[in-house]
Amino acid sequence: MNKKITAIIEWGTLLVSTGLVCFFLIAILWDLISKGAPSLSWQFISTSPTNGMTKGGILPAIIGTILLTLITALVAAPFGICCAIYLNEYAVDNWLTRIIRASIRNLAGVPSIIYGLFGLALFVQGLQMGTSLLAAGLTLGLLSLPYIIITTEEALRRIPNRMREAALAVGATKFESIRDVVLPSAIPGMLTGLVLTLSRAAGETAPILFTGVAFYINKPAGYLNQEFMALPYHLYMLSTQHQAIEQVRPLAYGTALVLIIVVFLLNLSAFYIRYQHSKHE
């Protein structure tokens, strides 16, 4: 009887916790959709802000966010994947590699504003890039690097050792076994981690605050050495720093909804990749 009561209490606790999380999630989404949907239009997503950002659209912020995410991927993905391959496939399990892994996990927990200050010191001032799209992309690349290493290494660990041993048994070198056997099997997990990491980076505000994002630009950034607009910072400015906050509040909700849609699409693509892989297994 005691076990039955305990099981009921545990099940009820899990059910209530899940219900609370779903309730608040639905409430937040409903608030964003109900207040942001009226602002969405083709003009809103295809034009630049006008009249002190009280009218017009958010095209420069959308393009800036996309370019920033692409730079982040180009910087973080190759280095992160190569580092994870080395740690999982080549590195000897000793005190040095354990320290490296612990350091990577600690870096994943560093607040994003610290990366912003580091990017300011290294890229903006040290390398004299100035506040620019490139400096912000490199900073977000550093922020994303630990997550990509961790998720890629986890994907590689899921591949059974017998697959590596079978490749070596038929005469393949270690590099060939990794390239032809391990990586093709791990790619879905690696891509899922990469996309989820980029969706997180696309919503960051603090790192780009110091390194390149601008309050207002009347056209999309066309060069890597230019300042740019981005959706998360644009939303922050409309919500807290604008001189007519009440007037631009509908635009702020519309910007928030567009940012949610962008992040949702990135996450949806990650789940699609995972689904396609599981269907072919």
Automatic annotation (TrEMBL):
CDD domains for this protein: TM_PBP2
Gene that this sequence comes from: pstA
Family, similarity comment: Belongs to the binding-protein-dependent transport system permease family. CysTW subfamily.
Keywords: Cell membrane, Membrane, Transmembrane, Transmembrane helix, Transport
Name of the protein described by the UniProt record: Phosphate transport system permease protein PstA
Gene Ontology BP terms: phosphate ion transmembrane transport
Matching PANTHER family: PHOSPHATE TRANSPORT SYSTEM PERMEASE PROTEIN PSTA-RELATED
Transmembrane residue ranges: 12-33, 58-87, 107-127, 133-150, 251-273
Topology of the protein relative to the lipid bilayer: Multi-pass membrane protein
Main location: membrane
InterPro entries on file: MetI-like (IPR000515), MetI-like_sf (IPR035906), Phosphate_PstA (IPR005672)
Localization, UniProt: Cell membrane
GO molecular function: phosphate transmembrane transporter activity
